[in-house]
UniProtKB/TrEMBL annotation:
Keywords: FAD, Flavoprotein, Oxidoreductase, Transit peptide. Belongs to the acyl-CoA dehydrogenase family. It is an enzyme of class 1 (oxidoreductase). The keyword Protein biosynthesis does not apply. It comes from the Bacteria. It catalyses: glutaryl-CoA + oxidized [electron-transfer flavoprotein] + 2 H(+) = (2E)-butenoyl-CoA + reduced [electron-transfer flavoprotein] + CO2. InterPro entries: Acyl-CoA_DH_CS (IPR006089), Acyl-CoA_Oxase/DH_mid-dom (IPR006091), Acyl-CoA_Oxase/DH_mid-dom_sf (IPR046373), AcylCo_DH-like_C (IPR036250), AcylCo_DH/oxidase_C (IPR009075), AcylCoA_DH/ox_N (IPR013786), AcylCoA_DH/ox_N_sf (IPR037069), AcylCoA_DH/oxidase_NM_dom_sf (IPR009100). Pathway: Amino-acid metabolism; lysine degradation; Amino-acid metabolism; tryptophan metabolism. Residues 27-137 form the Acyl-CoA dehydrogenase/oxidase N-terminal domain. This is glutaryl-CoA dehydrogenase (ETF). Transmembrane segments: none annotated. Signal peptide: none annotated.
Length: 397
């Protein structure tokens, strides 16, 4: 693995980096980070406050994300970039430094909808949907969660029944990202033969998606409630290789892995905003950064950011080696999101009253991270996964 050139003592390109983290990354990984960071700086940062305030998801930047190879970037073939898990994580961190909602779009598109089709779909389904989704010409969504079945998807009530050669779907899905702008939905439903997945064109008769609003979090993103009313699908809509919850869970783990990196991107951006502000803001004729209490806050935040990125990189290297275990994803998701929220909130305190405005990012990140903390497994779910790993005893019921 190639390493970056050493910087002068006391200098770093990453304000929070106390351990020369970049020396652990290859030149290719650093180059990708620069590319995505430039995109975020040019396309997202100048606009994100307005998008967040207006609750606007910027569909206009989706084709550019496709051009950069960010959609389904860890998948191979069908126009996908075929990047490594670490590269996918690095891109996620940079996107979430811009906003969690924009990183969530990449996750819903690539880790959930595209992964479901790539892992479990027929050749016809892959050829029809994946190339357009990789380019950002088509948008996908992933319908698993229901109003009464969040942490326990086995309790889903959406049902698909056979009617001759066709399938007929009925049910409700809730908190489904992008559903009202999607071209295709991967819908998970109970059948007489257990839980199965279906590829559903959103123009199908009986499919409707309504945005959930108003929201205090993820305002630059879209989450919807889907109603499925006698949605009739041909036999070819069934994901042929997905049987039971193994299908959706394999996709959730892809998304959870991305969160491990993404949350640290939001934390890093919050820290950098607070650090810059503390150097410029004078109180009692002295910069805030010159006070001991401020420095303690900055040090504590930086330590957790360094540890969080080290954890993300370690898990990414394991994933690329084919050795990552499911409980290890829970370690990363639980720890890094929890710490990122604490960092964003602490960063806001350094900004004082100015920190509640959209001119500064920490409180926006903190609000968004409340959603990140909930989706793809709550703190409680990941705690119980790890508790079972440590004790050998399941405590879910």
């Amino acid at each position: 693995m190639s390493q970056t050139a050493s910087t002068a003592v006391g200098e770093t390109l990453e304000p929070a980096d106390l351990i020369d983290f970049d020396s652990l990354l290859s030149r290719e990984e650093l180059a990708l980070r620069t590319t995505v960071r430039t995109f975020v700086d040019e396309a997202i940062r100048p606009n994100i406050a307005g998008w967040f305030e207006a609750a606007h998801f910027p569909l206009e930047i989706v084709p550019e994300m496709g051009r950069l190879g960010l959609l389904g970037m860890h998948l191979h073939g069908y126009g996908c970039a075929g990047r490594t898990a670490v590269e996918y994580g690095i891109a996620g961190a940079e996107l979430e430094a811009g906003d969690s909602g924009l990183r969530t779009f990449v996750s819903v598109q690539g880790s959930l909808a595209m992964s479901a089709i790539a892992k479990w779909g027929s050749e016809e389904q892959k050829s029809r949907w994946l190339p357009g989704m990789a380019k950002g010409e088509l948008i996908g969504c992933f319908g698993l969660t229901e109003p009464t079945a969040g942490s326990d998807p086995s309790a889903m009530k959406t049902f698909a029944r056979r009617d001759g050669e066709d399938w007929v779907l009925n049910g409700t899905k809730r908190w489904i990202g992008l559903a009202n702008v999607a071209d295709v939905a991967v819908i998970w439903a109970q059948t007489d033969g257990g839980i199965r997945g279906f590829v559903v064109p959103t123009g199908s008769s009986g499919f409707s998606a309504v945005p959930i609003e108003p929201k205090l979090s993820m305002r630059a993103s879209i989450q919807c409630e889907i109603e499925l009313t006698d949605v009739r699908l041909p036999a070819g809509a069934l994901l042929p290789d997905a049987h039971g919850l193994r299908g959706p869970f394999s996709c959730l783990n892809e998304a959870r892995y991305g969160i491990i990196w993404g949350a640290m991107g939001a934390a890093r951006d919050s820290f950098e905003a607070a650090l810059a502000y503390s150097k410029d803001r004078l109180q009692f004729d002295k910069p805030l950064a010159g006070y001991q209490l401020t420095q303690q806050k900055l040090v504590d935040m930086a330590l957790e950011i360094n540890k969080g990125f080290l954890l993300a990189l370690h898990l990414g290297r394991l994933k690329d080696a084919g050795a990552l275990q499911n409980h290890q994803i829970s370690v990363g998701k639980l720890n890094n999101v929890r710490e990122a929220i604490a960092i964003a909130r602490e960063a806001r305190t350094i900004l004082g009253g100015n920190g509640i405005t959209l001119e500064y990012s920490p409180l926006r990140h903190a609000n968004n991270l409340e959603s990140v903390r909930t989706y793809e497994g709550t703190d409680e779910v990941h705690t119980l996964i790890l508790g079972q790993r440590l004790t050998g005893l399941p405590a879910f019921r």
